Amino acid sequence: MFDFRRLRSPIIQAPMAGGINTPELVAASINAGVVGSFGFAYSSPEQISKDIKAARNLIHSDAQGALNCNFFVRPENFEASAQDSEKALNALKSLEFAGILS
Question: Does an H or E element contain 6, and which?
Fold first, then answer.
């Protein structure tokens, strides 16, 4: 479980979908000691994995912030294939393995 007391400031950088959230913005937020967030509303599993890895490469080893990934799922118009579901789960597992999710 994440301990929010480790944050430098109790701020969550908004998870904005549609391209405005970049790995650089998320990493800068985490490096500043707040929660950096991705808004994954329109992203493919491949893009999600790519963005998370890019942000992770920019996060300093002594960063006190945290990573938040916000997923939008619209069941009325979304049908994930088994392959897409597996890719999404693998992207999350890579975060857990890296210690970002616990």
Answer: none
Backbone phi and psi for residue 85, each to the nearest 5 degrees, phi listed first: -60, -40
Taking each helix axis from N to C terminus, what angle separates 45-58 and 82-97, rounded to the nearest 10 degrees?
10
- For the chain, domain boundaries: 6-97
Opening angle at CA 32, ends 28 and 35, nearest 5: 80
Q: What is the pLDDT along the chain (102 residues), one digit of tens a residue?
A: 677 888 999 899 999 987 788 999 999 999 999 999 999 988 888 898 899 999 999 999 999 999 999 987 766 656 778 888 788 778 777 766 555 544
Query: Which one-letter amino acid corresponds to residue 9?
Result: S
